[in-house]
Design a protein that fits this description.
Strand content: 5-15%
Order of helices and strands: HEEHHHHHHHEHHEHEEHEEE
CATH class of the largest domain: Mainly Alpha
Radius of gyration: 23 Å
Number of domains: 2
CATH topology of the largest domain: Triger factor/SurA peptide-binding fold
Number of strands: 9
Largest sheet: 4 strands, antiparallel
Mean pLDDT: 83
Structural class: alpha+beta
Shape: globular
Number of helices: 12
CATH architecture of the largest domain: Orthogonal Bundle
């Protein structure tokens, strides 16, 4: 399950970022504090150093982002982690080994999907790529990543009301699905034969689908009214987890795979609850950021990177 983004491990040229921003690497002051809990500069620099030279992670960085932008986003994520930890402690909910195991699986999948060299069209490929990235960290870094993610896992489960999930399912207003789009019925029947012989739907979509907007075929979860009637009506009338098609629409011929709507809705509701809690708690939190790392912008709940000094005006009269 995807969690609040900015997991803080996607960093490149970390030491260069510190030097470029004019940071004092021997600064002993905390990078930030959240309701009195400090985030140390040493820990933040250690996180930056942990991912330096990681080629897979460096590919995920937006080339338009400056080093200071990346560092500020990492500190933002650490502030989020602190807020989540406080919320979990306030609710008296423990982090279990099961939470840590789930957090590890989610984290590895996220790392794999974030790597352009491991297309998220094939889940197993993403897991393998994510495992390689995860294994590149030392044991202490791995433990920290898993523990912070496990806090979100435990908190999200505690926030989720199963009755809300059942109510959403009962409305039958949402469907979660993937599709493969081809031009002719003959092509669709050929792809269907591949599926019947055991080809994974995601691999078939990657290999055959003509829909550039969903290279792995995944259309996500959509409310009734999202699609044209020729596509939507049979989808909402189908049994859960069914595979449909070939089905013709003006766009071409489709093969459709329905996903577990209950699980997907639960994930969406859980994520929404986490985001709502995070926004409310950030608005009430006492957050201070060391100016060497940037400044806290309470209007967008993010650390803004430090600005370079304004140049001295040139005196043309001299």
């Amino acid at each position: 399950m995807n969690r609040i983004a900015l997991i803080g491990v996607l960093v490149v040229s970390a030491l260069g970022a510190a030097l470029a921003a004019g940071w004092n690497l021997n600064d002993s002051r905390p990078a930030a504090s959240v309701n009195g809990t400090e985030i140390s500069s040493d820990d933040l620099m250690a996180e930056l150093d942990a991912v330096m030279g990681n080629e897979d992670l460096s590919l995920t960085i937006d080339p338009a982002s400056s080093d200071a932008d990346v560092a500020a986003s990492i500190l933002t994520s650490r502030i989020y982690d602190s807020v989540f930890a406080d919320a979990l402690a306030d609710r008296g909910v423990p982090v279990t080994d099961e939470d840590r195991q789930q957090a590890t699986r989610d984290l590895i999948l996220d790392l794999g999907q974030g790597n352009p060299n491991a297309p998220n069209t094939v889940r197993q490929q993403a897991i393998e790529a994510g495992t390689a990235v995860f294994d590149s960290f030392d044991a202490d870094r791995q433990a920290t990543l898993v523990e912070t993610r496990a806090v979100q896992t435990a908190l999200g489960a505690d926030l989720l009301d199963p009755a809300d999930v059942e109510a959403a399912v009962a409305l039958n207003e949402v469907v979660c699905l993937s599709h493969i789009l081809v031009v002719t019925e003959e092509e669709a029947l050929g792809v269907l034969a591949e599926l019947n012989q055991g080809m994974a739907f995601e691999i078939a979509a990657q290999s055959f689908s003509a829909d550039p907007g969903s290279p792995d075929g995944n259309l996500g979860c959509n409310r009734r009214g999202t699609f044209i009637p020729e596509f939507e009506e049979p989808v909402f009338a189908a049994d859960p987890l069914a595979t449909l098609g070939p089905l013709q629409t003006p766009a071409g011929w489709h093969l459709i795979k329905l996903h577990d709507t209950r699980a997907a809705l639960a994930a969406d509701l859980e994520l929404s609850a986490l985001r709502t809690l995070l926004a409310a708690d950030l608005a009430d939190a006492d957050i201070e950021v060391n100016s060497r790392w940037g400044s806290w912008d309470s209007s967008v709940f993010q650390v803004q990177p430090p600005r370079a000094p304004e140049p001295e005006p040139f005196d043309f009269s001299a």
